[in-house]
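Recap for those who missed Tuesday's class. We walked through two folding examples back to back. For each one, the amino acid string is listed first and its predicted structure tokens come directly after. Nothing is annotated here on purpose, so try labeling regions yourself before you check the end of the notes.
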Amino acid sequence: MKMQGRSVFTYDVYAPTTVTTMLRPRRQEGQSIIQEGFNIEPSVPFSEYTDIYGNPCQRTILPVGRVTITTEVQANVNKTKEIPNPAPAYMLVGDLPDEIMHYILPSRYCESDLHEINMLAMEIAGNVEPGYAQVEAIRTWIHQHVKYQYGTTNSATTALDVARNRIGVCRDFTHLAIALCRNLCIPTRMTVGYLDKLKDMDLHAWFDAYLGGEWYTFDAVQEKTEGYRIEIAHGRDAADVAMVTQYGNATLQSLHVEVQLLEPEA
């Protein structure tokens, strides 16, 4: 399926401000980039590098005044991977590849080692068959018990906060899911990008769980994980996949996101 995504960030910059961004798409299996664009207005030079997770990153200094960052991508993408039958199995920690191990550790926003998180994980999935069934039980529970509402959380909100308050947005749903899965020793990562099936269009966050030697997508915001996605970045939590990180005096005034499927869905 051919899919297109576009995002426009508008900032008011009050002093020259260094920023790093993660706004260009990943090039990986299941996602073939046809064309893309990255533009800063007024034009300034920027450099690029790849972080430890393989995410393409950009770095520049924004000038004083109104600054607009526009990114566009058109890609051939596969539909969200369906879970095979039989479902992928739980992998013992001793059998995990070395490069997967850090995805079972606690991280800044996902306090998977806390007793309160453990109690909730046991309540939701303690009596469920290890592996896919546990992850899906956690995903379903969050969808049913956490209210989706803008303006109720911020950049300091963690999985523990969401477990207690039961309200948030896609970032918060994802952090809680990651913490609960990691507490059960299931490697889990946060992924951000474009999704075609969103009621309120925005850049989106979901989570991937490592099961049976592969990564599988789960989305607690949706009633059922489905749709087409363009992945921009993945990492342990939001600290690793921030779309824009600034080091200076700038204020985000608006963010406009558009997503479109360019071919009719079969």
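Example two. Treat it independently of the first, because the proteins are unrelated.
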Amino acid sequence: MHLWRGLQVTNTALGVVDLHLKDKSNSFAVGLWGGAGFTGDYKEFDYYMSYSRSGFTVAWWDIYNFSKNATYNNRQVFNYSARDTVHFMDLSVAYRFQGSFPLNISWTTVIFGRDRGALNEKNLYSTYMSMDYPVLRGGIVDVDLGVAGAFALNPEDGTDAHFYAKDAGIVNINVTASKKLKFGSYILPVSVMGMFNPANNEADLQIALDIF
């Protein structure tokens, strides 16, 4: 399945592809990200740009999920009308501390698109704040822990609902174990992530294989 920011995007097995170009310093990247479920129910196609330097990363994503059973307009890839576009764009800023304390902190806000609440009258500017830390390195497996909360910067009257949940609060507590398996000269990165979403009262498990 595909887990993302405390949400279960799809519960079917899927394949994803990340095609991107980087400059010579590996600081700037522009790319395309796509995913499709093996059953054909889940489909996504995204565009992104990012810049990283000295621990800082700034990224912009245009996310287009046109899954089969979507409850929103999912068949107009070039429709960027604020009220009925299927796209949503988010802007994120992250910093990973250098040295012996490699904590990563990030702030991401949906700045346009499918984040307008039940009344569809204004952008909610749903914001996702996260921290993650590599607690184990160099052992049998690497282990990372993370926690994230979410809220709307511009909520609708009478509700704290946002893109990730019905209420402001913790939406993602996760633990990830990863290892690079060696088969002769071939290396297969494998990871297993357990994710808990207290706001939505959900828990999920994701297994990922990085084939290429």
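Answers for example two:
The two ends are 19 Å apart (CA to CA).
The CA atoms of residues 88 and 114 lie 5 Å apart.
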